[in-house]
Specification:
40% of the residues lie in helices and 20% in strands. The protein is α/β, with parallel strands linked by helices and 225 residues long. It folds into two domains: 116 residues, 3-Layer(aba) Sandwich (Rossmann fold); 95 residues, Winged helix-like DNA-binding domain superfamily/Winged helix DNA-binding domain (Arc Repressor Mutant, subunit A), CATH 1.10.10. Strands 2-1-3-4-5 form a five-stranded parallel sheet, sandwiched between helices. Strand 1, helix 1 and strand 2 form a beta-alpha-beta unit.
Amino acid sequence: MHLLIIEDDTETADYLAGALGEAGHLVQISRDGHDAIFQVTETVFDAIILDRMLPKIDGMRVLSRLRAMGLMTPVLMLTALGSLDNRVEGLEAGADDYLVKPFAIVELNARLNALMRRPPVLDDPSVLCVGDLEINLFQRQVRREGRHISLQPREFSLLAELVRNANRIVTRTMLLERVWDYRFDPKTNIVETHISRLRTKLNNGFDKNLIVTVRGAGYMISDPG
């Protein structure tokens, strides 16, 4: 499995990475909430191990943000907060499993394997459509007129946000908050650059443009008819 460990404690993170690496997993580490969201939007992981108490953005907010983005990657919350209320809160926020520190690595590995054996949730409204475009949030696939379009994770998240708001204007500020989790203007053209790349990929081989720039307002995706 390709795993992301989101843990700010260096000793714990390194121990997890070493033990899970020896078990045959490919492991990456993130040490704060902002970086975690960035890594998840740039790389596809099989599962995520998430600590609750993180700097910059706490684990609960990271989890809520990932689920709001449509990310269905299994998340195992690993934390010292082990009361019944804590566990219920984590599971209700979208965690697939909850393991309390201290823990045995053999149990953690078994829980990860169990998550991988779970069948997909078939009744989840994970397929969004607008015009000839179809986006599958669970499989993280995009098709236009049945043709597969390959997107980077951040491009996928950007497209998902536009499609969720089809036929409505989505402002630059909204995209910065929902796709990049910025609560400030980074004073760069990051949105414009990604929109340009996304538009190029979506329109390649097609006559009609799906993403419209509404000057002075933002962007909108709609059925070109």
